[in-house]
Amino acid sequence: MNKATIAVDGSQSNGHPINPYLFGHFVEDIRDHMEAMLAFPLKDMDFESEAEGKAEVSGRWYPYTNGRNTSYALEAPAPKHSGRAQRIRILSDDEAYAGIAQHLALNGPIRYSVKLVARASVEIRYVIVEAVDRLRQERLGLERIELDSHNWREYEAVLDISRDCADAEFRIYVPAEHPRWQDSVSTGMLWIDHISLLPEDHIGFVKREVVEMAKDLNAGMMRLAGNYISAYHFEHGIGPVLERPVMYNEAWGGWTSKYFGTDEFIRFCRELQVEPLICVNDGSGTPEEAAQWVEYCNGGTDTPMGAVRAANGHPDPYNVKYWEIGNEVWGAWQVGTCAAADFARRTVTFIEAMKAADPEIVILACGHTNQDWNKAVLDIAGERIDYLTLHLYHGYNRFAMDRSTPAEERYKAIASFPEWTRHNIEQTREQILSSPKHSHVKLAITEYNTMYYPNNVRKGVPEEHTLGAAVANAANLNEMLRASDLVHIGSFSDLVNGWLGGCIRVGDYYADQYCGKLPGWSGHPLTVYGTPTYEVMKLYAGREITRLLPVRTECGTFSVQSNKPAPIKLDELPDLDVVACTNDEGSLITVFIVNRSLQAVTTTLDLRGLEVSEGTHLHVITGDSDQDLNTVFEPNRIASQMSDVPVETWKAGYVLRPSSIYVLEMRTNR
Asked: How far is CA 583 from the centre of its chain?
C-alpha cells in the first residue's frame, strides 16, 4: 500500500479571495439539453418538424385514426404564430375517430395544464385529449375541450394524470361518437396550431427535479452560451411564447427552443440565486443587436428595449453584469469564425456598443489555448476587456489513445487533466502579464470537462459519467482553486444532458451524437439523477472557503504513457492532488484530497501544531472501480457520504481508497 503525508499550515492564508463563480455551470441548446431540462413532455408542439412517415404529420406526431379516408396536411400557422398548423380531414361516412398522437412519458398523479390553439369547421364541436398506458391500454386521464369558434382560438384545460407512466400515448382527436355531419367541401376539418402539456409543479417551464438538483449545486454563476449562440437572435426568444418564431439550430441541427429565452433564463438564475452570464451573438449578429440585448436586460423602462421588457411583464431591470463576446470563434464549427485579429477588432466594436447601453457591464472575450490567438486579442482589445476565456476539454486524443489502449493507461491519461489545465493557465497568465495595458485581465474557464475523444464509435456505457471522470474533474477544480488569483469564473459543461458530459441526467440518453440506443429504451425515461461529477460539483461548491492555505504533499507518483509528444511532463505525477482552504475567520479548514492513484494510499495529516476542535467531518465520493457510474437503473450508486473521522486517526494514518475524492472539514479553536 502506498503512503503519503499532507502538511497544512493553518497559520496563514494567501491574500486573494476565492471567487464563488469558480463553481459555475452552463446552459446550452445542444441536442437534448432543452428537451431534458424543460418540463414539457410533448415534442413538436408547434408542428415545426417535417413529416417522418407516409402521412403528412409533423415530426414526433403520428396519425391516430381508424378511418379509411382520414387525411393529413401541414399548412400555415395561426396569425402571429410560428411553425405550422396540422390539418386533419375526417370523412363523416367513415364514422371513425381521427386525430394525432405522440409517445411520451408522464408523471403522476399530477395535473397537467393543456394549451391548445385550434380552429375547426363549424360542425366539429369538441375534441378529446387523452393519455393512455400504451402497454395496458389503461386510461391515465381524459378531458373534453369544447370548440366554440370557426376562427383560431386559444383553449386551456386541465388533464389529471393518475400515475407515472414511462410508455404513454397522448391523443387529441374527434371521437367516433361525435355527431356526424353532412359531407361537403367545407366539413370535417380540424386545424391544430399548438398543443402542449405542462405539469403543475414546473418552475418557469423547467422540470422541478432539475431546479431542485441545480439549487444543490450552489453554482454561483450560470452561463447561457454555446455554439448555437453565434446564430441566435435574442429578440426571437422574448415576448409571448406562441408568437416567438421557430429557429433552426444551425450549430446542432433540430430546433432552438423558443420556450427558454432571455426572460426564462433570468428567472431560472433567480430561482437558483446565481449570477447570470450571457454570451452575445457575434457571429451572425451585430454590435447594435448585442447592445439591444444589454438594454433589454438592464435598461430602464424609459429606454426602447427596457420598455419592451416591461411590456413582456418584467418592469424591473435584470441588471445582468457579465457579458461574453464570442464562443470558440477560432473553431471552424462556429458561425462567424475568423482570425484572431479580425475577432479582436470586431470585439472592440461590440464593446463600444454594449457599454453605451450600460457602462457598468463586465466584458469577457473569447480566448484560446493557442497563445498566438490570445496575443492578438490582448494586443488589440486587451485594454477594454475584463476577462479572457478558455475552454478546456480533456480526452484521449491528446495521447493518441483509443479504446484499444489498456484501461489502466486510459484512466491515468484522464486523471492527468489538471496538469494540462495548469499548463494552459500558466501560459495564458504569462501572455496576460506581458504588457501593463492588459495585465488587469483575469481568466474565465467558461467550459471544461472530460471528453474521452475519440468517442464516435463508443461501445457500451458512456465513460464520461464514471467515477474516473469525477476524479479528473475534481483534480481539475483543485487546479483552478490553486490559480484562483487569476481564474475567477468556471462553467462546467453541461448542466443537463446535451452531450454525455451533462452532470444532471434526465432519462436514458446514453449516446453520443452519432451512435447509441433510442431514448426510452430502458423503461426509465422519467428518472432524474446526478453523475459522479455532479456529486463533486455539489460537494466543492457547498463548502465555506474563501482563501487558500499553504499545503505540502509527499506521496507516490504515476506516469502516463502517451503515444505522441506532450507539452508537459507526464512522468512522476503525484498520486494525491491536494488543496487546503479556510474561511474568512480562519475557524474552518477544508482540505480537498483527490486520490488519482489506482491504489489505496495511507495518508498522514500534519497540521503543524494547529489545534482542532471536536466535530471534524469527512465527505467521500468513492466506488468499487474507477469505471463505476450512475444510471437510470442505479441512480445513486456513486454519491457523497459524510462521516466523522477524528484528527488523531488522520495523524496516525488514514487509508484513502483508489480513484476517490475526499473533503475534510476541521473546526479550529480560533
From this structure: 29
How do residues 417-449 score in pLDDT, each as one tens digit? 999 999 999 999 999 999 999 999 999 999 999
Statement to judge: residues 7 and 24 lie in one domain: no
Decide: 396 and 464 in contact? Cβ < 8 Å: no
Can you tell me the distance from the alpha carbon of 199 to that of 181, in angstroms, rounded to the nearest whole number?
A: 36
At 279-331, the pLDDT tens digits run 999 999 999 999 999 999 999 999 999 999 999 999 999 999 999 999 999 99
CATH number of the CATH domain containing 165? 2.60.120.260
Query: CA-to-CA distance for 175 and 477, rounded, in angstroms?
Result: 58
Residues 113 and 160: beta-carbon distance below 8 Å: no
The CA distances from residue 135 to 65, 168, 345, 523, 655, in Å, are: 18, 8, 60, 12, 51
CATH number at residue 29: 3.20.20.80
| Number of domains within the chain | 3
> What are 127-148's pLDDT values in tens digits?
999 999 999 999 999 999 999 9
335 and 452, same structural domain? yes
Neighbouring CB atoms inside 10 A of 79's CB total 9
Sign, CA torsion 293/298/303/306: positive
For residue 69, what is its C-alpha cell? 379516408
Among 542, 568, 595, where does a domain finish? 542
**Close Cβ partners of 234 (under 8 Å, ≥ 6 residues apart):** 261, 262, 281, 289, 292, 293, 296
Helices 407-415 and 467-482: crossing angle in degrees, nearest 10, is 20
In this predicted structure, which of 52-61, 532-541, 658-667 has the lowest mean pLDDT?
52-61
Contact assessment for residue 274 and residue 286, using Cβ atoms and an 8 Å cutoff: no
Q: Is the pTM of this model over 0.90?
A: yes
Position 456 confidence tier, pLDDT thresholds 50, 70, 90: very low
pLDDT band at 396 (very low <50, low <70, confident <90, very high): confident
- Residue 464, CA distances (Å) to 337, 497, 501, 526, 607 in order: 28, 12, 6, 21, 36
- pLDDT tens column, 531-549: 999 999 999 998 999 999 9
472 and 333 in one domain?
A: yes
Residue at 84 is within a domain: yes
Q: Which range of residues forms the domain containing residue 35? A: 20-40+203-230+240-256+270-292+311-542
Residue by residue, DSSP assigns 555-622 as --EE----SS--SS--SSEESEEEEEEE-TTS-EEEEEEEE-SSS-EEEEEE-TT--B-S--EEEEE-
